[in-house]
Amino acid sequence: MCIIISRLTILFEDPFWIGLYEREYDGKYEVCKITFGSEPKDYEVYSFMLSNWGRLKFSPALTGSQATSEHINPKRMQRIIKRQLKTGYIGTKAQQALKLQHEQIKTETKTRRKAERELENKRKFELRQKKKKERHRGH
User: Fold this and answer.
1) Are strands 28-36 and 5-13 parallel, antiparallel or unpaired?
2) 63: CB partners within 8 A, 6+ apart
3) Beta bridge partners of 7
4) 87-124: per-residue pLDDT in tens?
5) Helix-, strand-, coil-residue percentages of the chain, each rounded to 5
6) What is the 3-state secondary structure (H, E, C) of 17-62?
7) Residue 3, SS3?
8) Which residues pair with 12 in a beta bridge?
9) 25 strand-pairing partners
10) Helix (H) or strand (E) holding 69
11) Which residues, in sequence order, are bridge partners of residue 28?
12) Collapsing DSSP states into helix, strand and coil, what is residue 90?
């Protein structure tokens, strides 16, 4: 049986409110960072998730711990949630996953820009050669 755990954490990261959507399934851990402007209301977060679910870009999958299917006492669960809310920081797994995603996007952008720059330089070179030939044409 495949157990899926998903968690959405809304927190303030100066100067914006962000949402960290973490999901764990089949031993894989992925995270997505959602930037909100001002403090979002519950209904705004819900409508955002419904309308933009397909466009969320998750980090590359990291190996995660297997989720347990054992029942947790509701009071214990409340204590765990309270402890997580008290800490108020991004978990290390989430930080690693976001960093990996950031590095991946950075390398893709770098290679794309390099290719565009080379194409532009080639176009300019061709244009210079064409102008040079036109100047020497009739003499």
Assistant:
1) unpaired
2) 27, 28, 29
3) 22
4) 766 667 777 788 888 888 999 999 999 999 999 999 99
5) 50, 20, 25
6) EEEEEEEEECCEEEEEEEEECCCCCHHHHHHHHHHHHHHCCCCCCE
7) coil
8) 17
9) 28
10) none
11) 25, 63
12) coil
Where along the chain do its domains lie? 5-111
The two structure tokens encoding residue 1: 């049986």
pLDDT tens string 29-66: 888 888 888 888 888 888 888 898 888 888 887 776 55
Residue with tokens 């054992």: 70
47: left (phi > 0), else alpha (psi -120 to 50), else beta? alpha
Which tokens go with 60? 């590359």
Residue burial 61-79, b: 16+ Cβ < 10 Å; e: rest: bbebeeeeeeeeeeeeeee
